[in-house]
Every structure is written in C-alpha cells, then in structure tokens.
Design goal:
By secondary structure, this protein is an alpha/beta fold. The protein has two domains: 109 residues, Alpha-Beta Complex (Spore Coat Polysaccharide Biosynthesis Protein SpsA, Chain A); 45 residues, no CATH class. The chain is built from four helices and four strands, in the order βαβββααα. A four-stranded parallel beta sheet has the order 3-2-1-4, covered by helices on one side.
Amino acid sequence: MSDPRIVLCMKWGTKYGPEYVNRLYGMVSRHLRGPFRFVCLTDNSMGVNPEVDCLPLPRMELAPGADRGWPKLSTFKAGLHGLKGTALFLDLDVVIVGDITPFFEQPGDFLIIKDWKRPWRPHAALPPITKALCSVCRKCIRARCSRSPKRCLARM
C-alpha cells in the first residue's frame, strides 16, 4: 500500500477567510483521484468544512512584522502534528482546473517547484533548490548560501 496522501494549506490572520479553505478543498476533491487527507494549519477554524482537518499553526520564532509568508516554513518541521505520508502544499489562492494526481506520482523524496526567473529579485540567479533553502536561513541569502543545506534545515 502506498503512503497516505495529504493536501496541506495554511490560513492565519484575516487576509483569507474560511471560504478560501472550503473552495480549495472542493477543487482538490474534484481534481485528485483516490483517497486523501486535507489538512489546514490555522489560527481559526471557524467556518471551515468539517471534512477539513484543522490543526493549530506550528509555533515559529519570527521577527516582529515578519509574518507575511514566513509561517509556511513551519511545514518543514520534523514530526509536524504527527502527519505521515506524501504531502502537497497548496496556497489558498490557487485555482485548480485539472487533475493534480500526477503531483503525487512523481519520484523523489523532496520536490519543490522551480521558481520562474524574476530579475528584480536579488537572488534570482541562484539555483532553485538554493532559493528554497535561503528561506530557511536568512543568513544564507546574504552569504550566497555558503552553508550546507542540511545545516540550514537542521536549524528548524
């Protein structure tokens, strides 16, 4: 039997209401073949469909005002709420228009989307996996990622 499939999203603050979680769940239900568990890490589960497993946001030590996208990094924490299986993280504002089953069929232990070229970003020339790891360790980006990726992730 294959690993359980988990679709994971996050909702915190007031920018996105429960209707975004419910819509995303509906799109995943229509466009993912077979069983899955839909998990929303949130600070407020009020209004979210009962089919969605709402779990508390993992704690992260953030600098004041650094809450825009940084809480998403907490999904890399080892043993996150005891979740086991293969996970696909989706932002609340995505629109799914076709089958997403192939995301769970790709070989590999850790897959991340390649960032499209954005020349206005200072680290746009770095390889894609380096950019993802830079988000883990702010010093890496300034040091041009001289640290080992394993050390960056170990700091989580």
